[in-house]
Amino acid sequence: MRSTSLRTGSRRRTLAAASALLALAPVATAQTTSMPALRLNQVGFETTGPKAATLVDTRTTPLPWTISDASGWVVLTGETTVVGQDPTSGDHAHVLRFEALRTAGAYSLSAGDHTRRIQIADTPFATLKRDALVFFYENRSGIPIEAAHVARPDLARPAGHAPDRATCLSGTDTRGNVWPGCDYTLDVSGGWYDAGDHGKYVVNGGISTWTLLNAWERASLRGLADPYPDGAADIPESGNGVSDLLDEARWEVEFLMRMQVPVGARLQVPVGLFTRDQPLTFTEIDAGGLVHHKVHDVKWTGLPMAPADDPEARFLYAPNTAATLNMVAVAAQAARLWRTIDPAFAERALTAARRGLAAAKRHPNLYAVGDFNGGGNYGDDALDDELYWATAELFVTTGDPALLDDLRASPFFLSAPTAGPRPTGDIGWNSVGALGTIALAQAADRLPEAEREAARQSLITTARAYLADAQGQGYGHPFTGPDYSWGSNGNLMNRAMVLGLAHDFTGEAGFRNGVTAALDYLLGRNPLDQSYVTGHGDRPMRNPHHRFWAHSADPAYPAPPAGVLSGGPNNTAMSDPVAETMRGQCLPQTCWRDDIAAFTQNEVAINWNAPFVWVTAFLSPT
Ligand code: 9MR
User: Fold this and answer.
1) Is residue 311 included in any domain, yes or no?
2) Which of 230, 254, 380, 594 is catalytic?
3) Is residue 152 part of a domain?
């Protein structure tokens, strides 16, 4: 885990930053001037669920609102609650609550001279849930994407990187270090492309796969239906008698295991942390069991490009401790989940996990080095949380008492994002400690009851803090900012997952309502009146940063499928060509453009769609 200050809001920081933000005049863009002032979930509200909308209006007294049905009959009236000036959106917000309306149908909501259509349905998120998972099939590497399994023929494409065989990168990096390479080649075919690029990264693959597997295991442990029973997602494996959610996740688990260094291989790698201006020194180690960081093109490819057209050479990047522990966590989880479904696969996963953990303990200080021309970095210089997470998953799978001793010795033992002996910070690809606590809190018969309860309490305390963050937000979502970092929508979904778990543990409706509030924000209740999900809502995202779904750059390429979540507003890394033009001109929640070139704002990624799957599966359990 690196510093999580960008992700975690504390009240003090929020207030200080709020006054700094007020100095930033909100700039009306073409995008903002024509927006309706009533902002709400454009997909729909659950008949029995919470229902809220935001009205942007400068008046400081409550305003009346009405809801009429399709025949114009007024079915509900009320008054807004004035929230006031919302510092991270720049909007003067009123909130409307209409949960009293519990009859499915189409309605018109009117307030302050504005009218907006709303939908109320028993399960408004069922299609969203399916589409959110199909995203993963559509980003598979090493297999053709077949017209029979996608919504439109133009989304089909030939297999990319089939096969994906690579040896270790050798030669000079951008800082002049000379990498020695290795004497083997691995077949690392399969897996998912990370995002808009063609890289496959173990670190980000780890949390993404864990999240999908947890969505399945959570339902199973709670005696709920499989959220994606066989056939639900219509993927090539549909019909094999296994959950589509498990089949999809296995596509990546197999890839993560292929990234493991063969037993006995000796490699020259940088050991320990190097500052960026220090030349690297390479030490020969027994690298067997470690896991390579990523497989990626030697340099970034251009856009648009179908995966099968990638002309660049691909390489394995040096193994390190974080990547190894990511594989361990997920392989341990897989060993548990497939134990009766496919015992041979489960056994193979357990062997990989055990070997990986032993290798990570032998080499606890191998860090990702990012000075290459191609590929994202996913570098992390604090690995205690990865060790805790991987150990927790292997302990839950095996019950090995030695692993429990290790867990109890970890600073993160039973900690959650804002609670426990060492709060982990919000969940993200580089902040995975809470995932270990979630595994321990969910597992039956592993921890003594008092410790299991403490794990649950940490998560519940965190969920309460997230609900407190939602208080006073103009758009009602459980995040104060002030900073909206890269992938802020994915971060919000990770918060929603913790809220969902707190609901599992307590049954308190307020936690479930917090999950819905987070989803409302993604689906249009936000200052840009934007559904950040393709194909869903009146104003869906259309132009993601993606090399294949690149229609807006070249009409020969397809528009995106439905169910793809945009990374979302990002006021912390405004380094793409679109964001550069917005610097100093947008408030945090508005630093976003639906533009294929805006890779810091509008890329899509497996670690953002995965908690989106978790959340939609939570809200739409069958
Ligand atoms: O999600 C990642 C974000 O947290 C980092 O700040 C950013 C810059 O390193 O990288 C993001 O991940 C990207 C990755 O490096 C390459 N594939 C696309 C990912 C999403 O933009």
Assistant:
1) yes
2) 594
3) yes
| Annotated catalytic residue, options 57, 91, 197, 254 | 197
DSSP one-letter code for 9: -
In a domain, 15, yes or no: no
* Chain CA centroid to CA 587, Å: 23
Confidence grade of residue 34 (pLDDT, cut at 50, 70, 90): low
CATH at 298: 1.50.10.10
Could you list the residue range(s) of the whole structural domain that residue 375 is in? Answer: 142-189+194-381
Does residue 606's CB lie within 6 angstroms of at least one atom of ligand 1?
no
Cα(484) to centroid of ligand 1, in Å? 14
Instruction: Report the number of distinct structural domains present in the chain.
Output: 1
Name which residue sits closest to atom 19 of ligand 1, judged by CA.
195
pLDDT score for 6: 27
Residues with Cβ within 8 Å of residue 516, at least 6 apart in sequence: 46, 49, 50, 619
Q: Is the CB of 194 under 6 A from ligand 1?
A: yes
What tokens does 515 get? 């999950």
pLDDT score of 26: 41
Pocket test for ligand 1, best of 6, 7, 141, 194 (most atoms within 8 A of CB): 194
Nearest C-alpha neighbor of 193 from the set 314, 350, 333, 373: 314
Report if residue 440 sits inside a domain: no
Tell me the residue length of the chain.
Answer: 622
